[in-house]
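Quick entry between incubations.
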Amino acid sequence: MSQRSSHRFDATQLAARDGITAVMAQLRAQGLPDRAAGDVELALAEVVNNVVEHGYAGAPGGEVRVDADLTGARLELRVVDTGRPLPGGHLPPCRTVDLDRPPAELPEGGFGWGLIYSLTDTLRYDRKGVCNTLSMRFFLDGTGREKVRAGRCAPQTAP
Amino acid sequence: MQLTSVQRGDASIVTVKADRIDAAVAIQFKERMRSETEDGPERVILNLSEVSFIDSSGLGAIVAAMKQLGTERRLDLAGLSPMVDKVFRLTRMDTVFTLFPSLDDAMAELEG
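Done. Structure below.
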């Protein structure tokens, strides 16, 4: 059985937090297992934060829509916005952040996409007209791949 | 975003009184950490036992809080929930910080 839901919220950090919390509450009510919920929430938060911070980059009036489709052991989330496209019009390459440097020079950002790649089973980006759609799939029974790969990028397929 | 601090032995223990350190509070967290740790012992233990969710912005704010302490002081992390611990491992930040399962474990190292 497929369970669909859709949530809309303003592209601000506070509204994004409430929106993400609402999506997660809905998914848990629909039976998303607790052991998967942490990964899903983090991946969703990273994608939505990217949209708020870079896609709209503080421009007022932006909106984010999250469509969720939970079917048995598979969850698909689509994050839709009308902000700027991803640089180059495609997903960034999966890079690990260089931590081999003195503490004073450690990076304070740049971790988002690495987390998104690590936590999702498939990832796909489409730009149509003024709409960006970032689609993520999670195979909840763990058949997708080994999820914990510290500092490495998981292999991705985008069907 | 509320932080409380107590001094115990040779360490300052800063406890995060919030269940999320995310993009919405990351800057505020960094600023509050600056005022909580402006002076005080060389060792600061950040007690995260009430935090159930952290994202990359929150992680960056913890890195910033560590850098604010300068080279003569250190920031250790204690009481990480499984989700918070996972964020540190996935980003390999577990190689930068010393992570303790609980505040007691962090204090035991201090006393031992």
